[in-house]
């Protein structure tokens, strides 16, 4: 089975997602199934673990726990602490560390989210997503590209979703990324910059 998938990748066979509004093209049937399950399968029966602070729902307890960590709630108090902007005269406050860092970038001018296709850069992932997917400046292009794909693969794996890139790395490049920890470190470093050492990744 794995040999067949390997040969299909070399043969250049493509699997298009095919769902409305999704341009994702994958190289194996397994990656296509994983993509649809991770990105498009959002029926309530498949996402039974709900976040108590927002509308997010997960398929597994592990996914929910990872999401809950983004809320940065102290487990012993049950409620979040407000984080204040460190800049004098600014009244901005938020419960989320990632939101505070995104706000602080407005003061510092740091733009870690850089487009792979042009000089555009943004201080948050959502603006980069809009730039690549909604402006028609880069038709058919994606936010993420696997730079491990090489050799006989003329077209590297591409996707607009960090979780799909993680799944691809674990499935196709397990020799390079044997654990989810290795994969998460790799994806985290895609947008991390030396100018922003306390960088909090917004991808999921």
From TrEMBL:
GO cellular component: nucleus
SUPFAM superfamilies: beta-beta-alpha zinc fingers
Family under the similarity heading: Belongs to the snail C2H2-type zinc-finger protein family. Belongs to the krueppel C2H2-type zinc-finger protein family.
Descriptive protein name: C2H2-type domain-containing protein
Compartments, as annotated in UniProt: Nucleus
Keywords for this protein: DNA-binding, Metal-binding, Nucleus, Repeat, Transcription, Transcription regulation, Zinc, Zinc-finger
Any one Gene Ontology molecular-function term assigned to this protein's record: RNA polymerase II cis-regulatory region sequence-specific DNA binding
C2H2-type domain: residues covered: 49-76, 83-112
InterPro entries per the UniProt record, alphabetical: Snail/Krueppel_Znf, Znf_C2H2_sf, Znf_C2H2_type
Chief location: nucleus
Any Pfam family hit: zf-C2H2
């Amino acid at each position: 089975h794995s040999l067949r998938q390997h040969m299909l990748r070399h043969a250049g066979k493509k699997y298009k997602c095919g769902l409305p509004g999704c341009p994702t093209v994958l190289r194996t049937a397994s990656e296509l199934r994983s993509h649809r399950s991770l990105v498009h399968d959002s029926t309530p029966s498949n996402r039974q673990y709900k976040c108590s602070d927002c509308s997010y729902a997960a398929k597994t307890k592990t996914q929910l726990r990872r999401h809950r960590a983004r809320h940065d709630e102290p487990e012993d108090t049950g409620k979040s602490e407000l984080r204040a902007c460190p800049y004098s005269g600014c009244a901005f406050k938020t419960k989320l560390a990632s939101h505070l860092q995104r706000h602080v970038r407005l003061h510092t001018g740091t733009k870690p989210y850089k487009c792979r296709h042009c000089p555009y850069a943004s201080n948050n992932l959502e603006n980069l997503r809009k730039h690549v997917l909604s402006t028609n400046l880069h038709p058919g292009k994606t936010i993420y590209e696997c730079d491990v794909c090489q050799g006989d693969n003329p077209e590297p794996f591409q996707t607009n979703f960090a979780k799909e890139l993680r799944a691809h790395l674990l499935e196709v490049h397990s020799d390079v990324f044997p654990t989810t920890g290795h994969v998460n470190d790799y994806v985290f470093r895609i947008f991390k910059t030396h100018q922003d050492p306390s960088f909090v990744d917004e991808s999921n």
